[in-house]
Design a protein that fits this description.
Layout: E1 2-6, E2 16-17, H1 26-48, E3 67-69, E4 72-75, E5 92-100, H2 109-124, E6 129-135, H3 143-146, E7 155-158, E8 161-163, H4 171-186, E9 190-196, H5 200-207, E10 216-219, H6 229-238, E11 241-244, H7 254-261, E12 282-295, E13 300-313
């Protein structure tokens, strides 16, 4: 069984001017926003049953705040007619970042990519996006790699905790995934394509096999505050825009997802437990997509949110 988790628009408290430095890391924002959106849906369901806002003596039945469609459960339900942007499509720059997660087979990525892009297009009610960035699992950019140091494929200091992110897949596997987004680009659904955490050495090898070259490379400069000169020179020569970000390598670990959906103090009661009559089974995150719609002439983030796909194995 598939689960589609959504945050809705995290900017509903009011649009935000883009700032160069984002304090909150994406994994914290993702989990907090998912929890907030699900609890809001539960509270709305209780209000319909006559309980005022802020008084939740119990969780409402799951059918009151989730919905099913062709083997997929939406957590919480999505009211698609209420989605969309306030102005015409040409007034926005829409950026989407798709996170492929560890321990999920690369063979699944074509379907995952199409699912993720379809959800974003439906949520924003647009026919296309401007930039799609692919984040492959287990990759982390290190300044020392550009300076001739030994390449490393683990994020040593995310929030001060060592995280072994495993092996990075080979370029051939990445290119098979890239073929899918090249097709979407050819169909006019995606304007520009980008990658994340690529060193100049990996970019150079990757470019040899692409039909549509990446026009952006997003990196997390964790080791220092400046982009290495070698990468800047390579990007300039190859006309690749360098962007920085504050995202995590593994944005939604399975343990975090289970805690969120469980019936513990920080959980929303989707999964069965002593305090919940939710569904039983094991959940595993499959992918996460982040989308941002910026009003071009004002530099204001009007709509930002996440979708996450997971599987629920009840056997």
């Amino acid at each position: 069984m598939k689960l589609v988790l959504s945050t809705s628009n995290v900017m509903q408290g009011g649009p935000s001017i883009i700032r160069r430095h984002q304090v909150e890391k994406s994994n914290v924002e993702l989990v907090a926003s998912l929890r907030t959106n699900i609890l809001a849906a539960q509270e709305a369901a209780l209000e319909e049953d006559g309980f005022p806002n802020g008084t939740m003596p119990h969780r409402p039945p799951m059918t009151a705040w989730t919905s099913r469609d062709d083997g997929t459960i939406y957590v919480p339900s999505i009211d698609w007619p209420l989605s969309g942007l306030a102005e015409e499509r040409n007034q926005y720059d829409i950026t989407v970042k798709l996170f492929f997660l560890p321990h999920v087979s690369p063979a699944c990525r074509r379907a995952q990519t199409l699912q993720a892009i379809d959800l974003v297009l439906r949520e924003l009610r647009v026919p296309s996006i401007d930039l799609l960035i692919l984040s492959f699992p287990n990759m982390a950019f290190y300044v020392k790699d550009e300076e001739g140091g030994r390449p490393r494929d683990c994020d040593e200091h995310q929030n001060g905790v060592h995280e072994d992110t495993g092996e990075v897949e080979d370029i051939g596997s990445m290119i098979k995934t890239w073929r899918t987004v090249e097709q979407l680009h050819a169909q006019g659904i995606i304007g520009r394509l980008g990658v994340a955490e690529f060193s100049s050495h990996r970019l150079e090898e990757f470019l040899k096999h692409t039909k549509i070259r990446p026009s952006a490379n997003q990196i997390n400069v964790r080791d220092c505050c400046t982009v290495p000169r070698s990468l800047m020179n390579f990007a300039k020569r190859e006309q690749i825009e360098l962007l920085t970000h504050n995202d995590c390598t593994n944005i939604l670990p399975t343990g975090t997802l289970r805690e969120l959906l469980g019936d513990g103090p920080e959980g929303v009661g989707f999964l069965a437990g002593p305090r919940s009559d939710g569904l039983g089974g094991e959940v595993e995150a499959q992918w996460v997509v982040k989308y941002t719609a910026v009003v071009r002439d004002r530099g204001v983030v009007e709509n930002k949110g996440y979708f996450a796909m997971a599987t629920l194995d009840q056997h």
